Amino acid sequence: MSIAAKLFFSTDVEKQTLHRRIIPTDKQQEAQKERWNDLSDYLKEDLFEKTEYSIKSWLQGSYKFATQIRPSGPTEEFDIDLGIYFIWEGQPDDGKFNPIELKNITQDSLESYAQESEDEVKEVLTPPKNRCCRIIFSDNFHIDVPVYHLDENDDVRNLATEENEWENSDPKALFEWFSNECKEEQEGLQIRRMIRYIKMWSSLTFKEENRPSSIMITVLMIEAYKKASFETINDDDLFYACVNNILERIDQDRTVLNPVDGKEDINRLSDQDFQVFKEKIEALCDISKRALKSSTEMDSAVIWQEAFRHFFPLPEISEKDIKQGSKALSVIEFDPQVEVIAQPENNINRTYRDINKIGPIPRKCNIHFRIINNNLIPQRSKIEWTVRNEGEEAENKNDLGHYRGDKIEATENSAYKGTHYMDLVVKSYFGYPIGFRRIPVTVEGTPFPSRNPKYKPGYLKIRNKKR
């Protein structure tokens, strides 16, 4: 057990771990903070002028809880929740505006903000979502803006919905509940990691429209964590225990009550989507169990990759480890040798060539990988190529890799500065790794000059050109 614990989490923040790879960078957090602060100031002033009501804002959701994860791919977005509160005494219906009118006024303010922000905003979602308005920024994140009535005397909040109804909702009480559950420092940090792990799995597993909500997963994980046996404090063991507890929990009852409102079921999945959710949780339990029973760190990492894909790192295995037989590796039946050829897109007459590595090469190169001793691959074996990007530029573009194929050849494109990896795993028919090769791809910051150069700034990454 706990054979891959150090690949889940390390106190060394520079080490490539699952947790390190799924959390936003400091630069991304700071950019988000600047944007929501600026939007909050704008909305409070503009909405006051439009309605003559005092306005307050409240940051809520995963950013507030410190459980935010990075988007699962470069086309996905960070999510921030910024509640806007219109303040008047008494009941929601005592105000001058009904729920739809307040949402429409807020939508108009977001449109005005977008016009003044020029290229910083991609769009304001139209029509708005049922429980919020959404503004989408150009650098891969959006801010959801739920609209509330707040009675400060009674400290009561109600959410405006597209059904033109006021919905009892109290994000402040929910945050206080969460903070109380995480009040012990080390326990709180581990709970947050467990939530981030399962949120990333969910993001990789379900489409947004069929995905369990973040708050539903958060409540289920906290319940599961509190019931877990603490014979170990390692994240891989604990994650399995929590997922198993979640499976037992939802197998008995699909209802997930709001912890601060026992009348509200926060499981809004349809019957069909909930059944799929149960099946996927059961599959995640199976993956976790198999990974923990593995005899080597590499075997375990390859199995965990079934759940977390390119976000789960592989152990650092040297050429010496492969040749001498490391405890981190299972019995190697096949030692793949990979020829790597790179050609700049703007100068096909220049070729870079090497074995089991490539670089330094310019960005904007087409890269071709080929197993040159493929005649030695055991019969019925499975081939998996996976790109794992590292470094600030790849992180800031939320492009930390992807699955690349299952043939003896694979192609990629260099674009992010730094050293990235094409990881090749050859599996037996039963799914266990019998061959492994980690191919470093080192990319320089300057593209290869063309005969008629036209320099255009770009970001550097190793990625598939068509996805």
Helix content: 25-40%
- Kindly report how far apart the N and C termini lie: 37 Å
> What is the CATH topology classification name of the largest domain?
Beta Polymerase, domain 2
CATH class of the largest domain: Alpha Beta
Runs in which pLDDT lies below 50 for 5 or more consecutive residues are 451-467
Strand content: 15-25%
Per CATH, which architecture of the largest domain? Answer: 2-Layer Sandwich
Rg calculated over all Cα atoms: 25 Å
Largest sheet: 8 strands, mixed
Mean pLDDT: 90
What sort of overall outline do the alpha carbons produce when their principal axes are compared? globular
Name the quaternary structure.
single chain
Number of domains: 3
Output the number of helix runs: 13
What structural class do the secondary elements suggest?
A: alpha+beta
Please provide the count of β strands: 20
Keywords:
single chain; 467 residues; alpha+beta; Beta Polymerase, domain 2; Immunoglobulin-like; 3 domains; five-stranded antiparallel beta sheet; 36% helix; globular; disordered C terminus
Reconstruct the topology from this structure.
Blueprint (H helix, E strand, L loop, with lengths): L4 H4 L9 H5 L3 H26 L2 E7 H5 L12 E10 L11 H18 L4 E4 L8 E5 L3 E5 L1 E5 L4 E5 L5 E3 L2 H11 L3 H21 L8 H14 L7 H18 L4 E2 L2 E5 L5 H22 L4 H12 L10 H6 L13 E7 L7 E4 L2 E4 L3 E7 L10 E7 L3 H5 L4 E5 L3 E6 L3 E10 L5 E11 L18 E2 L4
Parallel strand pairs: 2-5, 2-6, 13-19
Antiparallel strand pairs: 1-2, 3-4, 4-5, 6-7, 7-8, 9-10, 11-12, 11-14, 14-17, 15-16, 15-18, 17-20, 18-19
Could you write a compact summary of the structure shown?
The chain has 467 residues and is an alpha+beta fold.
